[in-house]
Write a structure and sequence with these properties.
Layout: H1 12-19, H2 29-45, H3 47-79, H4 82-96, E1 99-103, E2 109-112, H5 113-116, H6 131-146, H7 167-172, E3 179-184, E4 190-197, E5 204-210, H8 212-263, H9 280-329, H10 333-369, E6 373-376, H11 377-391, E7 398-402, E8 410-413, H12 415-432, E9 438-446, E10 449-455, H13 490-500, E11 504-509, E12 517-524
Parallel strand pairs: 7-9
Antiparallel strand pairs: 1-2, 1-5, 3-4, 4-5, 6-8, 9-10, 10-12, 11-12
Helix pairs in contact: 2-8, 3-4, 3-8, 8-9, 9-10, 10-13, 12-13
Length: 528
């Protein structure tokens, strides 16, 4: 686990605003996942609009091609005699799959390829086509309106087939280059029309062709794109639902479990840990489970602590009440003084209990807010021992400290709290040591840890009691004079502080079979 380092909370509301979704706040997570993936498919659908530009390029190429073909036809017609023109027009019409019409100088139609041979194309009546063709034409019109395509006029045969009835021939009159345009047949397929004056000035020629293949190519490509979009949309929706199932459902399960924990009255309600998931959801579930367990532990510990506090305070209060009640009935001054001494001891005991209880109740919260810094354990212990010497706190007990080299025993922690731990251990060791006894302190590195030993020459601690001595209000002192002078919270506070620093504390036997207790503390070594 990482060390508990408190970070300043600047403004919770600013954090909430940074994480807010504003316009999408009312949407569920499943809806958002679907929306994002469908939006990607919508971007893919933009390929349909690209096909409209593709059709325009094909049409433009066909117009250029029609002008070139008509120029070749016009040059060929100008180079042959009149009796060969019918055969030449029939052959060109068959090869080009187009309708060729030759008009004389007066604008009257002279030759029509459709009159010389079977028509090379026929306009399709849209009323006779299947319904799917109507849908295709509707899609054409929809896309054209969405991309704001320029409207294309409809193709109609003039009532009188004269040269002046064709805009292409009117525009090409007197010009050396051919003129072409595109119009739409009744079934919305493009009709290519090109007109040109003959080089010998004997008339004009008109070429018309129904380029149904352009529409067929574009619609085939559009069908392919639609198929790809449909498959991609189906896969995307299925994957979105799968993603939503793997994200939303576990989150809902965690939310419901958290709600049950908040509303429940049973300790058995727990957040699912989802051990099979190694992703962020699994990390969240395990973090919430650990958090709920820690909260439940703290709640239980608080309840137990409150019960212990009530029990511990009742004893001196009962003794104080008895002493005060006895003062009212006792007239002997000596006995009154004895009762007053008992009352004074009880008041001091209650005061000591309240102070230690206050420290014990604050230690967890203060550790959660503490900012850990590199601490030199050797320097800290040296300063602590010097202060105890000045205050004469050792009560005739000698303390031997093997001072480690500078910066050898460095840990990350709260200096004030760690000093409280060692002060409690030293007070405990001094209180159990005989007059003139020796307390030994050793701090050495051990791999990635710093090990501190505090050993005394007291009676020691039975192996069966070594876990209980760290419990709150536990005090096992054979000396009756020490009764009431210790709250039994010192070692409990020390254990809480050490565990808050991700360390451990335990009691060992002194080496060599010597009498006394040896407290061992292990703290993670500082990397700095």
């Amino acid at each position: 686990m990482e060390p508990v380092i408190a970070t300043p909370n600047k403004d919770g509301q600013e954090c909430d605003r940074a994480l807010s979704l504003r316009w999408s706040a009312r949407l569920s997570l499943t809806t958002r996942i679907l929306a994002v993936n469908v939006l990607a498919i919508a971007l893919l659908a933009g390929g349909l609009f690209y096909l409209n530009n593709y059709r325009d390029r094909l049409t433009e190429e066909r117009l250029v091609q029609a002008r070139m073909q008509l120029t070749i036809v016009a040059d060929a017609l100008s180079a042959v005699d009149a009796e060969y023109k019918n055969a030449l027009i029939r052959q060109f019409s068959s090869h080009l799959r187009a309708r060729l019409r030759l008009y004389g100088p007066d604008g009257a139609k002279v030759i029509d390829s459709f009159a010389l041979a079977k028509p090379s194309y026929e306009f399709v009546d849209p009323e006779k086509e299947p319904f799917r063709k109507d849908l295709a034409r509707l899609l054409d019109r929809t896309i054209e309106s969405l991309v704001f395509s320029a409207p294309i006029p409809k193709f109609t045969e003039p009532d009188e087939d004269l040269a002046g009835a064709w805009p292409e021939l009117v525009a090409a009159k007197g010009e050396t280059e051919a003129v072409s345009s595109v119009r739409l047949a009744p079934d919305r397929t493009p009709v290519i029309a090109a007109g040109k004056s003959l080089p010998d000035g004997t008339g004009t020629i008109l070429l018309t062709a129904n380029a149904r293949d352009i529409t067929r190519i574009v619609r085939a490509e559009r069908s392919s794109v639609l198929l790809v979009i449909l498959v991609a949309a189906t896969v995307s929706i299925l994957l979105s639902l799968f993603l939503a199932r793997t994200i939303v459902q576990p989150i809902r399960k965690l939310a419901h479990a958290a709600l049950r924990v908040r509303m429940g009255r049973s300790d058995e309600i727990a957040i699912p840990r989802m051990p099979d998931r190694r992703d962020e959801i699994g990390q969240l579930s395990r973090a919430l489970s650990d958090m709920s367990s820690a909260l439940r532990y703290r709640i239980n510990a608080t309840e137990a602590f409150a019960a212990d506090v009530s029990h511990e305070i009742k004893n001196p209060l009962a003794s104080l009440r008895s002493a005060l009640e006895g003062l009212e009935r006792v007239e002997d001054p000596a006995l009154q003084k004895q009762l007053l001494d008992v009352a004074n001891d009880d008041v001091q005991r209650i005061d000591r209990l309240i102070n230690d209880i206050s420290d014990a109740s604050r230690v967890d919260a203060e550790l959660a807010r503490a900012k850990f810094e590199p601490i030199d354990i050797g320097k800290m212990l040296e300063q602590l021992l010097a202060a105890r010497e000045q205050r004469a706190s050792n009560l005739g007990v000698h303390i031997a400290f093997a001072r480690p080299a500078k910066d050898v025993a460095r840990v990350m922690g709260d200096g004030g709290r760690l000093e409280r731990v060692f002060s409690n251990l030293l007070d405990n060791a001094v209180s159990f040591s005989p007059d003139g006894g020796l307390v030994e302190i050793l701090a050495t590195p051990d791999g990635e840890e710093i090990v501190i030993h505090v050993a005394d020459q007291g009676p020691g601690v039975d192996p069966e009691q070594r876990e209980q001595v760290f419990q709150r209000f536990h005090s096992d002192r054979p000396d009756s004079e020490a009764f009431g002078k210790h709250s039994g919270l010192g070692l409990a506070i020390a254990k809480t502080i050490i565990e808050g620093h991700q360390g451990t504390i335990r009691i060992l036997d002194r080496p060599g079979g010597q009498s006394g207790a040896c407290f061992e503390i292990r703290l993670p070594k500082s990397a700095a």
